[in-house]
């Protein structure tokens, strides 16, 4: 599919395609053409031109999402192109904007917004090298530190020190880039480029480092907080976090696995849980909450009832919910507002079929994403599932990997899914009849790939044919065996892998020491 370009955009492409000419001629370009030239340069990956455009930016703001998004001159949205050449040129251009004393333009720039950049799985840029969120955090922090060192050493124009630009960014901090980011945040006051953290993700950090850096980010501005994987945050630490720091603008909160475990609760823990619920209730903007792989049996109401604002996104996958939890969710004021819901890891059809379908009917008018992985949905439940999904006319994404469904049941389900007008993405399981007879669900990792791959390919083709015959080529159907694509995990998997090996080695050493002592 080709996107129409206006004559203005075609002219802009022609202008920037000759980098040497474009760079030489920039001083004669009208201010209002800079955004047009920027998008054309980004499309053609003209790094040097991008650098010079940013270095001489004549406008008050520089918003990546708007500049790369759909415009009248060129409808295609380029904000999902995290091209390394383009982004590095952008950020170094920003540094040189501060240092460039001979620019013919007055320095008006006050706000740079980098939050509109979207990290996706498939990249269309020619260089095929991406700069993800972690690398953007790393580079911006490095440039801020270098800028300060240079300003302290060089004889700069006094006007340079008066430059103050707020750079809005989604930070991603792990052990490997922690020191660099801390230094940049500590020196924020004296640096002309001021990092303003809008979203913060931390992984592979000690609790001490997490608590230190989160205070440096200015939590009063934070809209999204993700504490994931290798940050060992438990309930008592979460209570300390909420008691010591206020998050007035927080809209989205993701907590690591095993933050809560009600199986070892004491009276004190019950009080702690109530306090955490009350603190979340004070976050009046909070509409997205993810608490997967915690044990929350019978405590969902205690945690969610103090919230003043209805949740739009809730992930309680693998949280060992019971009937009371599901009944609370189905009858709560959140139910009518849920746009994204993940209930994976719960035996829906057996444990609470009626309350689950009640919940589904309440959120059906707004629901956009539903995830029901490893929910023991079998062939006998498909008609009931179709009945429950029928009112969900806004559903865009349905994920149900890991359910024991036959090829025949999947074909029946796909025939129905074609009727959901907004549907764009389906993640379906390997059919049960592709696995050896007697396979038990949920399937362990060792057996996950031991299926008849040829038979699976045939079934997948048939399912895609069902979509094709219904004119639904717009629906992407896939079976990501080891979970959906996660840009953040993908970018840092080497560091996380090394951390896991180190943890395993330490555990092994402790075990060996204990064993030797026993002997």
TrEMBL record:
Domain of life: Eukaryota
InterPro entries, sorted: LRR_dom_sf, LRRC14/PRAME
SUPFAM superfamilies, per database record: RNI-like
UniProt entry tagged with the keyword Repeat: yes
Coiled coil: none
Record carries keyword Transmembrane: no
One Gene Ontology term, aspect cellular component: cytoplasm
Keyword vocabulary terms for this entry: Leucine-rich repeat, Repeat
Family the UniProt entry places it in: Belongs to the PRAME family. LRRC14 subfamily.
Protein name as catalogued: Leucine-rich repeat-containing protein 14B
Organism encoding this protein: Edolisoma coerulescens
Gene: Lrrc14b
């Amino acid at each position: 599919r080709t996107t129409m370009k206006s004559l203005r955009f075609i002219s802009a492409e022609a202008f920037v395609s000759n980098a040497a000419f474009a760079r030489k001629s920039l001083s004669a370009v009208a201010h209002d053409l800079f955004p047009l030239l920027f998008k054309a340069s980004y499309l053609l990956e003209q790094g040097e031109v991008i650098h010079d455009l940013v270095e001489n930016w004549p406008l008050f703001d520089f918003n990546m999402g708007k500049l790369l998004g759909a415009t009248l001159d060129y409808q295609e949205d380029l904000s999902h192109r995290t091209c390394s050449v383009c982004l590095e040129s952008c950020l170094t251009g920003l540094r040189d904007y501060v240092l460039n004393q001979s620019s013919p333009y007055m320095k008006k720039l006050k706000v740079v917004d980098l939050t509109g950049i979207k990290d996706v799985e498939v990249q269309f840029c020619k260089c095929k090298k991406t700069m993800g969120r972690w690398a953007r955090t790393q580079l911006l922090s490095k440039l801020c530190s270098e800028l300060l060192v240079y300003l302290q050493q060089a004889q700069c124009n006094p006007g340079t020190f008066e430059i103050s630009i707020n750079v809005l960014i989604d930070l991603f901090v792990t052990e490997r880039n922690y020191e660099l980011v801390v230094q940049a945040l500590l020196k924020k006051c004296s640096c002309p480029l001021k990092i303003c953290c809008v979203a913060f993700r931390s992984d592979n950090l000690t609790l001490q480092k997490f608590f230190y850096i989160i205070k440096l980010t200015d939590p009063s501005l934070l809209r999204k907080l993700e504490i994931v994987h290798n940050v060992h945050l438990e309930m008592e630490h979460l209570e300390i976090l909420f008691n010591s720091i206020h998050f007035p603008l927080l809209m989205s909160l993701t907590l690591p696995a095993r933050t809560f475990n009600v199986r070892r609760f004491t009276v004190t823990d019950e009080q702690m849980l109530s306090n955490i619920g009350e603190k979340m209730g004070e976050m009046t903007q909070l509409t997205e909450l993810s608490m997967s792989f915690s044990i929350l049996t019978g405590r969902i109401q205690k945690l969610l009832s103090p919230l003043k604002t209805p949740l739009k996104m809730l992930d309680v996958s693998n949280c060992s919910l019971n009937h009371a939890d599901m009944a609370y969710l189905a009858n709560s004021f959140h139910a009518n507002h849920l746009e994204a819901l993940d209930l994976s890891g719960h035996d829906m059809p057996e444990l609470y079929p009626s309350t689950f379908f009640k919940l589904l009917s309440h959120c059906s008018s707004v629901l956009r994403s539903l995830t029901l992985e490893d929910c023991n949905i079998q062939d006998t439940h498909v008609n009931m599932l179709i009945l429950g999904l029928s009112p969900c006319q806004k559903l865009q994404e349905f994920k149900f990997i890991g359910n024991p469904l036959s090829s025949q049941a999947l074909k029946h389900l796909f025939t129905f899914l074609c009727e959901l007008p907004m549907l764009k993405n389906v993640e379906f399981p390997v059919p049960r009849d592709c696995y050896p007879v007697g396979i038990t669900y949920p399937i362990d990792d060792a057996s996950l790939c031991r299926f008849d791959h040829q038979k699976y390919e045939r079934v997948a083709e048939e399912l895609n044919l069902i979509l094709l015959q219904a004119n639904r080529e717009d629906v992407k159907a896939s079976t990501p065996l080891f979970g959906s694509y996660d840009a953040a995990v993908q970018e840092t998997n080497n560091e996380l892998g090394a951390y896991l090996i180190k943890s395993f080695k330490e555990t092994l050493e402790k075990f060996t020491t204990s064993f030797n002592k026993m002997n």
